[in-house]
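Complex 295.
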Amino acid sequence: METSLASISRNHAHYKRCYDIFEQKSGKIELYNKWASEEFPNIIQNIFDNKTRISCGRSLGIGSGTGSFEAALLKQLQLYFPSIHHIVVEPSETYVSHYKLHSILDDVQYDWQLKTMQQFKHDRDVSCNGRKFDFISAVNSLYYADDLNETLRYLVDQLTPKGCLMIFIRSEKGAGYRIIVNFPELHPAFEGSYLISSQTIVDMLTGMGLKHKVYHLPTSVDFSSAMNESDAEGNALLDLYTGIVDFRQTAPPSLVESVLEFLNKEERPDEEDLNMHVQSHLVLMEWDIIFIEKQ
Ligand SMILES: C[S@@+](CC[C@H](N)C(=O)[O-])C[C@H]1O[C@@H](n2cnc3c(N)ncnc32)[C@H](O)[C@@H]1O
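Predicted structure with S-adenosylmethionine bound:
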């Protein structure tokens, strides 16, 4: 189907601007870091406790972004591996520069791979570099996989015995997924696996006979700015959540209106905000975290 709508995932600079605004407005960084220090340690304890503590751990980040969350994860892994060799696979130069400036840890040896996961796999296949990983994370990046089934198989295959793959992905419950799935008019603009939810991944893993555990990370995001057409931050949120560059300006007005109506119905008032009479428009966002342990 022909579309005049442009996918946000093809425009790295615009995507980064919208994602930065989303991170500020949603408290996502604090939420993720809290999860990394409070929940992640309990989960990996069961996985890595029996691993030898003398070896150098090997880890791989797929779509690492600015590395702030990756650093929080690596800090916990350091309790099990005195030194870590960590490969960063990230195609955005801006993100990698930020990572190098702000998210570097001692006793971690970084290997910068300024490329997509597709290029990374290709280059590894060509060089026959078969060294496997104790930990692989793909945090909100599998939307960019070309063939999700094959990507999952590949990542699991790259794990050492008892190694673990951790995937963060939007859940079916959150507005992020509900918007795009409810508006098929957006779909022709999408490429890769942009339309997936955690359920897509769970179904594939089940089909492959791979055991996995799923954890949930819900939060509320204030979308009131998206209701105001002259609010630049609100428009950036709309772009991120529809997956379309300049959604308000480029989508047919009837589609913009329907998406806003949909968001209005998604509202989930927070008790605290009601008590404070704050003018906010809170919408549920939820990520699922899927752990796959190599048997
Ligand atoms: C939603 S951001 C997540 C960043 C980081 N993991 C986090 O949670 O803060 C998605 C990341 O995937 C990267 N990305 C986009 N296409 C990719 C691809 N084909 N392979 C690997 N990473 C990709 C983007 O540059 C971006 O850093």
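The chain has 13 helices and seven strands.
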